[in-house]
Amino acid sequence: MSHGLKPCVFACTLTFAVGMVSGCANPLSGSGAIQITPTASLLSPGQTLQFKAITDLPKVPPFLWQVNGIVGGSPSVGTITAEGLYTAPSTPTVQQQVQIGVRDQLVSATVALFDPFHPSPGSVGATQNPLVATYTISIPLGASVRVHFGADTSYGLSSSAVPSPALGGAVTVLVAGMRASTSYHMQGVIKLMDGSQVTDVDHTFTTGAIPTDSLPSIRTQVTGVGTPSSGVELLSLVPLGSGGSGNLLSAVATDLAGNVIWYYDLPVGAYVEPIKPLPNGHMLMVTLGSVNDIREIDLAGKLINQITLSSIAESLTHVASFQNAVWGGLNHDVLVLPNGPLILLASIGETINDEPGIPSGTVVTGNALIDWDPRLAAVWTWSTFDHLDLAHAPYGISDWTHGNAVIYSPDDGNLLFSMRNQNWIVKINYQDGTGDGSILWRFGPGGDFSLPGQEAPVEWNYGQHYPTIQSATSSGIFSLMFFDNGNGRLMDSSDDVCGSAGVGACYSSVPIFELNEYTKTGTALWVDNLSPAYSTCCGDALVLPNGNVEFDIAIDASSPNSSIEEVTQTQTPELIWKMDIQGQLAYRGFRIPSLYPGQVWPAYAENNLRRADIRPRIQRRPNP
User: Fold this and answer.
1) Which CATH number fits domain 123-206: 2.60.40.10, 2.30.29.30, 3.30.70.100, 3.30.70.1140?
2) Tell me: the pLDDT tens digits for 241-251?
C-alpha cells in the first residue's frame, strides 16, 4: 500500500467562519475566520513542527492547542506547547496520523507519522520514455531518498538523492540508465534528518522497447591493455549526407558496451548539437534541423524550459550591433555559467559594403554570444563583427568565423571562444558580464602566442573544436586541451599545406598545451597524433578521471563513420576502449560520470564489454 498523506478532516485550506457555526462554544467575539498552518505534514519520530493559528479577529485570547482533541497532546500522539510547537511521538505508535487543532474550533491540520521500522512501500510506474521509470515514495520532513537499481538485487547503480517537500510528503524520483526490454530491480533508500537510513522493499520494472529503425548503429570493443574509465557515453549524433538519418536517435546515452540506456525523442528531422547534463539533473541541448531552439528537459523528456531564436532576436532589437543582423540560428554550443545564466552561441550575418577586397553587398556570416538571464533576457552581448578583422579569413569570407565552443574561465570571469574558421581560440574580456568584450589574446597561427621553433607551425591548431581547461588555474599559466582537426595544417617552415603534392597528408591530433599569458608562449605538454585519422569537422577531447584521454574522431576522411577512443596519456598512447558509430556523425561524444549529478557509475560486469584485437593506428608519431 502506498504511503501518502491522508486528507484532513476539512480541506487543507479550509477557513472557519466563527459566527456561522451554531452550537459551538467560541471564546472569540465578533465575526472572523481562523486557519491553522501548515495544513499537512509528514514527520519522523521525535521531529518538531511549529503550527500557527491565523485569524483576522481584532482581539484573540490564548489558543488552547490540542492533538486528537487532547489539550497539549500526549506521549502516544505527540505533544504540543501553548505556542503551537508540536513534537511527534519519540517511538512509532499505532497512530498513522494525528489532527492538530485549537480547542472549540472545527479547523484542524493533519500530521502523518512516519514509521522507520515499517515504512509504507513506494510504487514504480512508467513514463513517456520507455527506458525511464518513476519511483514514488513518501518521506518525512528533512529527509531525502535515492534509488538503487540494477539487473538483480545487488543493484550497482544509483540515482541522486531527492529531498523531501518542505513539510515532508510524496517524492518522485526519475530512474534512468536502463537498457531497453530488460527487467530491473530497484529499491529506495531514505536518509532521515538524524543520518539514519530506511530501506524500502525491492521493486521490479521492465523497460520498453526502442523502435528498431531508431537505434543508432554502435559497436564497442576493449583491447585488454587497461580498464576503461568509469561512466557512460553522452552522444550528440548528427545526420550524415543530404538524405539525413531517418528516425535515428540523436540525443543518446550508452553504457560502455554501446547499449542505449537513455535517449530524448526529438521531432522528426531534428537533431542536437550538443547535449549537456545540468547540475540539477536535467539535460540542456541545442536543437537544429526541423526545430531550432535551446531546451531543458528532465530525464523523462518533459520540457522544462525553452529559448527560441525569435525571443533572442526580439530582446536585442535595441542593441546597435544586432539591428541589421540576419540571424542564422542557434548552434554548436551553449554554456552554463556558475551562477545560473547561459551564454548562447548563434550565427549572424551582415551585409558588407565598404570593406577593401570584399565585393559590395557580400553577406558575411559571423557569430554572436549572448549572456541570457531567463528573468532579464539578454544582459550582455558580443559580436565577431565588433571585435575581429574581416581580413583574417583563413577559410574564406562567407562562413567567416564558425564558432563552435565557449567555456568559462573561473579565475578571471572571462570567456574562451573557439572559432574553427579562424584557427583561433580567443579569450574575451567578459568579467562576469561587466567586461567590454575586447579580445585579450588569440591562440593559433597568426595570433598572439608563439610556440617553440620545433613545434611551429605543425603543432598549431587548425579548425579546432571543444577546448577544455585541464589545470586548477584558468589564467596566468594554465593547461588547455582541445581536438585539433588539422584542416589546412601547415607542415613545415615553408608553410606547405598538408595534402599538397609532395607534402604529408592532413591529420588530426589531441594536444594539451601549457599557455603562459604573461609571456604569450605556448608549449605542448602532450600530443596524441592521430595520423592517419583526419576529422574535417567536429570532435572533442577530455581527460578522464583515471588519467586516460578520450576523444571523438567525428568523421574520418577515409571513412563515413565516427569513432570515440580512450587511450593512455603516455609518451606512446595505447588504445584502451573504442566505440564505432555508423550512419551518423558524432558531433560530440564524451564520458560523463553517470546520468545523475554526484553519482559515478562503474564499468561493471553487466556491461559485457567485448574484447577484440584492434589494430593500432598506423604512422603514429612519437609524442614530444
Assistant:
1) 2.60.40.10
2) 644 456 899 99
